[in-house]
Amino acid sequence: MKALVSPEQIRSAERALSVGTWTITFGAVLYSVLTVTPLMSGHTPNGWHWTAPILPLVVDAAVVIVVRMDSTLARLGGDGGRWPTVLRWLTGLMTLLLNVGLSALQGDLVGVAVHSVAPLLLIVTAETSLAYRRAIASALAARESAERAERAEREHQAEERRQRAREDRLAEWEAADRSERERREHEERLAREQREHEARMRREEREAAERRESTEREEKARREAAERAERERREREVSERERREREEHLAREQAERDAVERACQKLLSAGPATERLPEERAREVARAAGLVGLTQRQAVELTGWSAGWIAARYQELRDTPAQPAPIAA
After folding, report:
1. How many CB atoms within 10 Å of residue 59?
2. Is-above-0.85 flag for pTM?
């Protein structure tokens, strides 16, 4: 009996094969570029030596394409036909000839042998990795086929067991189905009656709620109307009170102005002073003169005080906010 290989072991082997193949491929490509470039440089016209690495890069790019596509086709279980094989061997031989070309032209057999190692290893590795991958793909396909057959057999046996179990339970189900159907019908009848009762209760509750909402809306409308009327009444009272206060304030101001004017006229009716008035009396006369709009010169004549003193009183009158008050006679 063959030993079973786990999928993880197969994936590990594929990774090792892939890493090894690509390591050899890139090593051979790098070695080929370094080896072939001097050969191409020696057979390139002057001024074009910079093109020497192009040919080995082109050939090695074809090698990379072949290795990559062979790896993908082998993983998919496909076959590209004879042209991939022709390209694989053609690029391998080109790489071999280009690598040993310089040593062969110089007659260096050791150099030919040394420089043929990487191309030959690349050719054999490409063929071997392709064979490995095809063998792995074939083995996996066979294994999957066997596993599918085994699963199908197990499923067939399980289906037979399920069929027998269904047949065994069928009689029980048929017997229980009638009682279950009767039970469901009874429950459905009860549930229908319950739903009808709940619907009737919800309808009655909804009608009651609508009546309450209507009553609340009417009550709210009445409250809002009463509040609006009360607010308008208070606003009218406030407006009337403010109007009366303004009228009373204006009347008081007018009375005060009249009193001040009479007092000022009384103070000024004495005419020009023949001598300087007492200071308190002079202050009252100067204030009265300022209030009625007399000039400072006229105030000097009425009080007998100097122009500077009168100017100071006028300045005090201008600096003091207008506050009508009784003036002593």
Report:
1. 20
2. no
